[in-house]
Amino acid sequence: MKKIVALGVSIVLSAELAALSLHDRRFVLWAAGAAALFALVNVRQVLGADDDPPPPPSENALEESLRGWLSRTQTLIHRSESTRADWDRHLRPMLARRFAIATGQKQTKDPTAFDATGRTLFGAELWAWVNPNNVAQTGAREPGPGRATLQEILERLEQV
Prior knowledge:
Number of strands: 0
Number of domains: 2
Strand content: under 5%
């Protein structure tokens, strides 16, 4: 970019010097204008090269995106209906992160306000499944809360 600008300035100056050396001075303005136009066109080409619009996504990419979303959703539903250990390992961190983002509360700043906001938003029963501090150490055999609980939690998060 710097080279093109320097080249444009040097072309304008050389065109003006060449026109000034002539006896007929009415060509000075035309020569300087043509050289400036040349420089601006080159600068615009360099700057315009980055502004090309990205190619539209192909139908294959859209299908793959939809399949990925469907797969992740099915995995979430499966984990919600399996054991509490799966819920604690996979769903609880995701739900707690989404809750923190949606409400702006950070557990590390004020744990009491974080807990109070969670209880207010979800109620005591649902907050027990979102609260990141409620991980059971022996929940490998206990059943998870199920799909209905996950749906209710996600609906309340959407309302924030």
